[in-house]
Amino acid sequence: MQFYRDTWVEVNLDYIKENYVNIQNHLQGGTKVMAIVKANGYGHGAQQVAKHVVESGVDYLGVALLDEAIALRSYGIEVPILVLGWVAPEYASKAARYGITLTVFQNEWLQALEETSQPLTLHLKFDTGMNRLGINDENEAKLIINTIKQNPSLKLEGAFSHFATADELDSELVNQQMSRFSNYLSLMKKEGITPEIVHFGNSAGAIRFPEYEQQYVRVGISLYGLSPSEEMKEVLPFSLKQAFSLHSRLTHVKQIGPGDTVSYGATYEASEKEWIGTVPIGYADGWPRRYADKGHVLVEGHYCKIVGRICMDQLLIRLPYKVDVGTKATLVGEQKGLEITVDDIAMQNDTINYEIPCLISSRVPRIYKKNNVIIETMNQILNNS
Ligand code: PMH
Hints:
Number of strands: 21
CATH class of the largest domain: Alpha Beta
Helix content: 25-40%
Radius of gyration: 24 Å
Low-confidence stretches: none
Number of helices: 11
Structural class: alpha/beta
Bound molecules: ligand PMH
CATH superfamily of the largest domain: Alanine racemase
Strand content: 25-35%
Mean pLDDT: 96
Number of domains: 2
């Protein structure tokens, strides 16, 4: 094993495949899953997740940054990759060279393009209500389409939009967005362009509107086995399996007495004789400092309260009894029938599940399991895998 610290993330690749297959089977009319692996695969590891989903049948990937797309190419991923974010026009030729698809929504962007020797594949992004990125004006749409038509090295392959509220069960904006998007698609048709690939749904859209006519849905959070929102848990047509877990091992165990305090600021004071364990994970690993208030860690199948302040590299827990140094401590995951989920951590930190695995820093090695066997480890500190 190529890491020397006692804290690691485990990614269950079988669960990712199961989530993918369930979503794919749920979709109708030939719609396929574009796997979204931006932000290091939502913290799970973009390369390993990409490789695994491609082996499982995914034939299009989505990322946020050109850098993320190039990293996947360098890793040997050959399927089309769409960059969902804005890429400076001076880097478009780089994208073309790597066969990476870019998102376009500004006419000035097209005009700033330098000559490319290879064709550049583009997807038009329409803003239908998110007001983040995208064309939100018909005249701008016409201008862009005409500019693309005049440039033979540009291949307009796709058109897409993004839902702002598909994870809310009762939202008028979803229908408004759908109708605005279909107006834009009609406009494209009138201008003589029918994109090969239309995509709109994120996880929530894919799960709630499987019949919506589109070639792809861009699926992120549910691929990793997490629900797009709490309210959506009630309408999930299949169960999602959380692929992410986070573990550590106790590096020190000691007994303290009444009046003894723990960690910086001496905020926790023992009222009796207590066993305290040191867990080598801290806020520099992305374990939120504010989690100290209510957080627990599982040790030998017991919920152990985090006591005192979370430090940069370590935190302290109260143990039910003396346990050995080296005993496993689970921060996210299961132990003896008890579980701490990503959703539990998110709720206790007043955030969404998306944020939690993304926050676990590159300092924490990732190990990848298939059939309960480790098939790969990734330690970005030593840059090995
Ligand atoms: N498409 C785009 C353009 C996105 O920004 C995202 C997620 C997805 C698809 C996948 O969505 P899902 O994970 O809900 O399936 N983007 C973000 C974001 O910007 N903040 O949180 C999720």
